[in-house]
Amino acid sequence: MFSNTAARKSVDSLEPWSPTSPTETSFHRQPTSSLPRLRRGSTASSIHSIGGQLDSFKPQTVLEAGQNAISALLQPPIVRTGLQPHTAAPPSSAHKPPTSRDIPPVTLTNVPHVDAAEFTSYLTQVGALYDQLRRIQESDDDVADHVFRPAKPDELADSRDESYLRPGSRQSSSARPMSSGSARSASPISSPTSRGPIRRRSSSGYSRKQAQGPSPLSTIPTVYFDEDFHLENPRTFDIVSEKSEVVTPTPGSATDKKLANGNAPAPRKPLATNAILQEKLSWYMDTVEMHLISSISTASTTFFTALGSLKELHSEAADSVDQIKTLRKELEALDHEIATSGLEILGKQRRRENLQQLSDAVKQLNDIVGSLATCENLVEVGDLQGALNNIDSLENLMAGRATATSTDGNNVALPLRDLRDAVALQGMGEDISKLRFRIGKAFESQFLNILLGDLRRHIDELSTSEVLSRWSSAARRSRGSHSREQSAFPAYLTKTEDLRSQLMPVLIGLHRSKHIAIAIASYREVVMREIRSLVKRPLPTSHDDDNESMISASTVNSKRLTQQEKSSILARNLRALDEQDAEELFTKLYVGVTETLRRLTTQVKVLFDVASSIGEAPAPSADRSPSQLKSPPLNSANRDIQEDIHVTMDMANLLGQAVDTSQDKIVKVLRVRSEQSTQLPLAWFLRYFTLNLYFANECESISGRSGTPLKTVVNSHIKDFIQSHGDAEQQKLAQAMESDQWNQKDFTERDNILLNRILESSTRDSKSWTEGTQIWIPFSECQNDEDVEATGRPRAESNGTAKEKTRGAVIDEETFILPNSAILCLEGMTHFLHLITGIPSLASDISNSLFAYLKLFNSRCTQLILGAGAMRSAGLRNITTKHLALASQSLAFISTLIPHVREFVRRHAGSGPNVNNVAVSGMMGEFDRVRRQFQEHQNNIYDKIIEIMGSRAAAHAKTAKGIAWEQESEAKVNLYMETLVKETITLHRVLAKHLPEGTVRLIMGPVFDSYKNQLGNALDTLEPMSEGATSRIESDINYLIARLGKIEGFGDVGDHLLGIVTSKKLKPAPVENNTADPQLEKQAGSDGEPSKTDGPVPEDAPKVSSDNPSNASN
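Given the sequence above, the corresponding structure tokens read:
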């Protein structure tokens, strides 16, 4: 620390401090007992004195008598001695002490603030070690209690200052700060408050402490051991100088005034006169020196002991080397005399053996070349099995394994060796590989011919109807229903014994020629080509036969069609196919592809079965079932064959590729016929849909792939067909309703069958609807006599001119007299239900089309009857009550069928795997809305009839008011009353003929009420009349009662009218002249004559009128 030796010497030369010095502490007072006084010389003298007393070192109190700070040296001598305060400089001195301005400012380092929570992990790690340290320190304190005497109360104040001089224990952990910054700012010696009062040691205790050795290093502050110790650091300097004051403020300065105001902190000692700090620094250096000396003295004994042992090892190693040299010389002599001659004899014997082995190898090589030529000859003549046997013998001969030909001329077995690495046979392996490849190619050809021939034989012999029936059974099983019919054993699983017997030798030959993987890969390619051929083979020709027949063969050869021309001709021929031919084409395509793939899976099972049997004795044919394809457990002989077949064939990938390839080509054909497919009749389209559905299911069952392109095309055809079918049905219904004469039509047995199908549809599907999708039955055989509507052609309508017996439709004992339009609507509804039965997955789309169909019937009926549109479209003269009644019956008939249709749709729409309950509920609500519309239309017709009869009653009441009742008339009943009664009777007869009794009663009641009101109001307006006039009115009313009184709903109409007439009678007056004036009678006759013209219905009556007597019979 002190680089200037002269400074140390000048300090040491100073006299000790006076006891009366202000800076003297109790630590520097001499004890009463005489202790040897330590000297403090230079650094060299200290080391010399300590080194010379290693054995007799006894620690004593070290006193620092001088000041070593530069600022202290610059002070006058009197100030340096400490006898005068630092600030009290003599006035005669010309020296000016430095001020704070003379000292350059020191830039303090910014200490970052560290959160206490960041030390949590560190505290948890050192917690156990810290607790152990505390326990050790406490045990040391307990030992010290026996050594040190307790402190006296009067010495507590001195001990606090003395603590800076005594190198005691380090600061306790409880008073030690947590952060590194605070640790550096703390005092190097523990504060008195944290350590408690320092106890003074007695002389005996002090001597005991000296005997224990030097003070521990823990007495030295940790700042001196810091690797980053730099005294120029202001914080480090504060710690080392114990915050002593470097420059004392001059009197009268700003700093001094601030201190005088009472704001100053605790007083700080001047650094120049702090002798205690100098003593501490010397104490720290002596402590380190003594620890170094102690460590060196401790390790010296062990070092010299190890050095002696090393010398002994060196001497022993030299002796061993000399002995080894002697042994080597002796061994060289023995080797030259005995081993060399023996090795020469052994070398000659080895040479003779090598020459014999060379001779045998040459003979073996000759046999190898001859066997190779034999193998080539056998391959040329086609003896593949013999060639394989010779190749196996040749390979054994090359490998040095014993064979039947490995003998010399004396039938002595030659010793064989492995010559496969010989230079002369380097090309032999390649020749053998070529021979084996030629043999494998020959077996591969046989292998492909056997399997491909089996596939084609299966396709030629299979029954299409059996395959389609099996598809249908599989589809029903997938939907959860089971067929009662016994399913036949699939044809693709039969006739496996012949195939197995043919494949056994070929597969063995492929295995021996190491050609199984190549043959299986070739078979994959052959299968893919066969699948493409199966799709292409049944298609129509791609050239025009008619044009080709008119030109010569030379012209055909000279004019080749391009690929685009062939494609256009093929598309035209495909579109020209009718329903029957198109179905046969698709059936042949679908069955051929799927059955080929099914037979392919069977062939693979047979291959595995044959592979598992290789290397085993063949089982008797009687013990094997024709369908038994179970393979025995794998063994070392056949495991490799089965693995090659499994890996190379990769059935899942092959089946997937075959299905994708076939479906891609079939999709192209379906797209070409999209227009024709969507315009098929209903029965043919359902067969078309069922066939495609079964094919898609079969492909998915075989390959595990969904076939999205095929399903997408078919679904688009279905949606287009639903749209076109709905449009066609609506157009057919609209045309039939416009041409309908609205006469009652006979409800035939065929119509009853259609009706029963709809009525039963709420609980079960009609057999005719389900039998139409049995595609394994030809279309001509599955059509019954009553299924003529399946052709999709509109039914013929009779003109109604001929007299024929008319029957009505009966539903729940209620009879409906229907026109042709209602029967045609019934037939159209069966078509929609038939379509839902065939395609239940699209029940919602079909139901929407059915809603439009029913709404069209309702709206067209409104336009033609209530709107009188039938007078223009069908040529009707007027809309009669019969037309209104028939329209009402049609609406009632359809509204009665709607609940059954609603349950049918609910049963099919809610039975699929992905049921949308919200959509189903919406459809059910739509059915209810359509039915309410029909019922509202029905009520409108009833209101129209009541309105017409009310208008007729108003007209007749107006006529009655214009009659001269006082005049006499020959007619018993006036014409207006006869007409009203006749019209009412005709209305009742027509309604009773076409409508139910309750409906007739519902209509006639309001009609009679209108009579009561209209006629009653007319009679109320009449003036009181004579008895003759009232008698005429009463006779009309009695006629009304007599003719209409028995009709339900008439009620008290007659009594009400008679009561009004009775109130109009005049009281009798005295008779003055009984002779009538002839002029008045003539006038009365002339006035009563026009009354006959008021009775008939005028021509300008409303368009909708009641029937006249001429058409009452209708």
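The chain has 38 helices and two strands. Try to locate this feature in the token string yourself.
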